[in-house]
Design a protein that fits this description.
Number of domains: 3
Radius of gyration: 23 Å
InterPro entries: DUF6502
Distance between the termini: 47 Å
Structural class: mainly alpha
Order of helices and strands: HHHHHHHEEHHH
Shape: globular
Number of helices: 10
Strand content: under 5%
Protein name: DUF222 domain-containing protein
Helix content: 55-70%
Number of strands: 2
Length: 272
Amino acid sequence: MSSNSPDLFSDVLADLLAPLAQALVAQGMTLASATEALKQALCNAAIVAEGEGVSDSRISILTGLHRKDVRRLRSHEPVVPGRKTANRMALLIGHWATDPDFQGQDGRPRALPRESADERPAFNDLVRRLRLDMAPGSMLQALIDQGAVFQDEDGLLHLASDALVPEVGAQELVAAYHATLATHMAAATQNLLAQKGARRQFDRVLRYSHLSDASVAELDRLARDEAQSFLTRLNARAHELQQRDAEHGARGRFAAGAYILPTPDAAEKDAE
């Protein structure tokens, strides 16, 4: 990286932090809690860059953290209450909605019994397949409490139609924000820090301006349809491979995502 990279990075830092700051304010996080999280992240980053044996003094020099803070931060991992449960629920909902074994002939997630009375897999089978390290009964209750699943008069379990779009503030929404943004940031940061000739992660974006609201809406629909189709196909194949590889103790990870940001004409909106 060039010698003026810090200055270049400072120029864009405010833009990078702006949407994150909006989320912090919306979630009720103060400067003190945000600063503590940043301190932990800087300490962790220095350890990753220098190795586990790096001294507290070296971390302090690299990050500007006081050595007392470094000693404290190295002694514990921050815990986010509810994150594991929320991530598990999001994973289960995603598989229920897209796995062919749990879909009806119309391609929609079918109603599931708790235990299977025939050859078709049931809710408990779904929990076991995903290896969620959580009892099916506990997972079901968590989903019901969040309004993601409801039980009909016949005892069948239904995935709520809006389960994939959690309410504002729900743990699932925070978990989805964490999973998608953290993964994208990791890929983009690897590309930023990659040495010349090193393999770079695939990270592309299309940007167009001077579009009418109708054109923005058309591109939005097209992008959503194509992205959903791609992710559905990829998910089906990834699930097959995971089922096969997990039996052999494989530990590799893979992530792929898509984002769409349509912005109608601001001038027209302001005039309304």
